[in-house]
Queue: 2 jobs
Job 1
Amino acid sequence: MEISSAAKRKNARERIDSPLRRILRKVASNPTGVASLAFILFLILCVAFPGLIAPFDLAAPDYDHTLEGPGLAHLFGTDEYGRDIFSRVIHGAKYTLQIGLISVFAGAFVGTVLGVTAGYYGGLYETVVMRACDVLLAFPGMLLAIGIIALIGTGTWNVVIAVAVYTVPIFTRIIRGNTIELKNLVYVEAARAIGLKDRWIILRHILPGTFSVAIVYITMRIGSAILTGAALSFVGFGAQPPTPEWGTMLSSGRNYVVTAPHVALFPGIAIFLTCLAFNLLGDCLRDALDSKIAE
Amino acid sequence: MLSYIVRRIAAMIPILLLVSIVIFLFIRILPGDPARLVAGEDASAETVALVRAELGLDQPIVRQYLIYMGKLFQGDFGYSYRSHKPVAELMANRIVPTAQLAFSALIWAALVGIPLGVFSAINRGRWLDRSIMVVSVSGISIPAFWLGILLVQFFCVRWGLLPSGGYGGVKNIVLPSLTLGAHVVATMARFGRNSLLETLRQDYVRTARAKGAREWQVILKHALRNALIPIVTMSAMQLGFMLGGSVVVESVFAWPGVGRLLIASVTERDYPVIQACMLLFSFTFLFINMVTDLMYAIINPQIRLDS
Amino acid sequence: MSKRLIEVKDLSIQFRSERSWVTAVSRVSFHIGAGETVGLVGESGCGKSVSSLAIMGLLPDRRTCRAQGEILYEGRDLFSCDRESMRRIRGNRISMIFQEPMTCLNPVVPVGKQIAEAIRLHNRPDRREIDARVVSLLAMVGIPDPKGAAKRYPFELSGGMRQRVMIAMVMSCSPQLLIADEPTTALDVTIQAQILDLIRGMKEKSGAATLMITHDLGVIADICERVIIMYAGQVVEEAEKFELFDHPAHPYTAALLKSIPSLSNKGKKLYSIRGSVPSPGSIEKGCVFAPRCSLAKPRCLAERPELRDIAGGHLCRCWEVD
């Protein structure tokens, strides 16, 4: 029997490859995916070692050089206190990633737990959870976040909480629907029939099934979380000056639109590029997951 | 069909009630004494007690809720802590500007976004598709407030074509509307593209081709006719999300809408105003969602006839 | 010899898969005479549906699918036809019905309108004529209350009804060739018989040639005159129906016939062909069936056999048969 050597190699590779490796390889083969990942890694570096990358101190004023445009000494120019905008942008990466990643992952985690348990156990518990979600989802995300800020006050961590809270019901609904589908699949029926404990079934059978749905939604929400967080800061509900959060910087930079437009330009570009990187990465991941499903 | 409409409206009522309860409890959850907030920091204990009685805060909570709901139905939204004016009066002439902003943004976003998505899908993989998708993903990544500032910078500061803010004529609404609609255009282009691509994969499209239909007939009469159903309902939903986005855009352009009022009242801790604004926004959002569902039911014959 | 309506010559089709091209159909040749009913049999993935899509000109675009060879329709090569000419043949001279009646009709358009569209694409009668023709077609395929049915949406009809509507649509322009791709597979057994009877009746009345694609040998025995057996993208046997059932030459055909469960074999184990269908392109040398064949010899694994005439029109692709 002559199976082609190409087929033999393919079979061997398939055995070594885990699905994770395959997805990573698909992302790696896509240039936009690689570029996005590289940019995000750079941001993580900015969060971990801001001092190394930023040439100037983020708070030191220099009243001789206020509102200077971009140049050799100051890549992004200086603000109204003479501070180097480039350094402040680098330091500000921390807050953006905080809001984007922590809030979404926290919201996704809580939402998934609620969704899986509500979908699996049903009954009064499910009804209560779903009604609570209905109430939370009765508000557009931004407005719910504002309401929560009104309740708990301003500040970066409060913004994280606010964004996480409006993310929870989104995930709860999706994951619950997914859980109900999975619950009705034959292999779950079989597991119950042989007497496996509920907790085991949930952990080993249902949770992995919700994984791909959760990943897709997480990638979709990170971008909007970053934008909402920055918007909240812009209107004054997030980090307060002199914290170099990008939305806050834009808010103060706004006063200089006529005289020194560069002050508002660069934080905005930073938000845009970060959001773009996450969205592109999300698209890439989704394509990779989709083709895996299609296979 | 009529029964579906009735059922859908009825389903909304419990949520409306729950939301009103949550918003009602809003002030009560806060730390601090609302009566003191109204009376002022240096008011005496007796003044505070008087205020408390006046506001009905000494009643059992269920009774308070019922009084609150009763007042709502009569259009009494309470009084602002700051200005002591009736909240209803503060909100009254701000509703129209916000509505104008949201609707104008939706219209232009739909008129531009949906065709972009359709062209993208038809030319899948080719240059036009790729460029539209690049623009779309940028559109959903761009912060609206930054876009607004950029637009002001070019159209006002540099070229002096349009005003940088304020309310009044057609010129005033152009930039805010563009800003608010940018994200939505991108979303609709992406969604429209996916919807149409999904439809083109369906078996009945293959049947249409097998019948000998011309390609434009296949796309228009068969694929698009079906793809538009989710697209239209999605557009209606975007209107709801734009309510949230309008809050920020109104800030950038000093647009005298409800969003700006909300932000100011959060900064000033003017809780009755916050409550009323949140109530208005959520009820509007729920209403839009309901209308969207009904619209979907009307367009989709399967739901229309299957009662 | 009767006129050859369709002549497929050395048809090969490849599909794009990630980095390379995979062969789905490899140098397939067959013909269909005017008014003839030919059966195309094979398991899923053997290339039978793809070959028929090629005849209809419905293959995906050149970026994902390549085809070589010739498909002659009344002497013209369909591959060299321009789009408009092909469009005029499709649905008009050559029509096709598919396997899934549940999803084959546009869900938001009433069925009468969909049939009317089929007529209007190739004719220009006026509105009332079309309406009358639609009603008569629906009646002809056995749908009760044809006038009312014409206004119904597909979701209001059962699977069997939808397939009848498809048949009505497809026969509306009196095609010369009807391709039926597993028209009954997705239906209940009782409905299957009805639909087959309907197809037989239609083709007898109109004199159309029929290419019946199926994996069910029972359907072949019922309706077809000549049978073509395909395996892994190649034609492995071709014969008149009775000749095939009485004297199956190719080991695959013999195995297929042996696999049919029969009431007289009570108590005996069901026969199945060992191994499984090879994935496209995985067998580069030798006979495609050799890995599973009980008669396989070394020569079978090394050289691909040619399709030879072994007995007056009975073709077979096998080294071990003569």
Job 2
Amino acid sequence: MAMPAAEIEALIRAALPDADVAITDLAGDGDHYSAHVVSTAFAGKTRVQQHKLVYEALGGRMGGALHALQLTTAVPN
Amino acid sequence: MSEANTRISQIVQGNDVVLFMKGTPLFPQCGFSSRAIAILDHCGIAYESVDVLQDMEIRQGIKEFSDWPTIPQLYVKGEFVGGSDIMMEMYEAGELQQLLADAQVAKAS
């Protein structure tokens, strides 16, 4: 149940258009990724709320089609 | 409220620190759960763990309980703190240690 990095990035950008998204394929298997997402949409939100915005952008794929996504979020400086 | 929800609520309210995980602290069955356990152990506090692989109802129910799609999930004093990524970010920033200190949770024995 792999998912290409470009698809993950496109889904995140569709929901958070200003987002700076950096995705790393951790295991080279198209199934274990890390993503660092920087967006003004995170301003004033808790980490849980920030991560939920990204999970919502992925539309229920998290924990399903997308098995392992290590996620970090930040607000632009 | 579903039966799973009631059970989860009782677990979360009944333990100062509880981690819903895949596997056990000694034998985590997933890299993210393993990382969460390592962080809690570094914090040196006592915690309870629930192996969701042993209970399909809780495995599914916990995701709805917190509106959070993945496991592990950490709860402190009844509040959802986050998954392993958030635990790591908070640990590195010293925020997790502070949260645990503020919550006055018991030290690991």
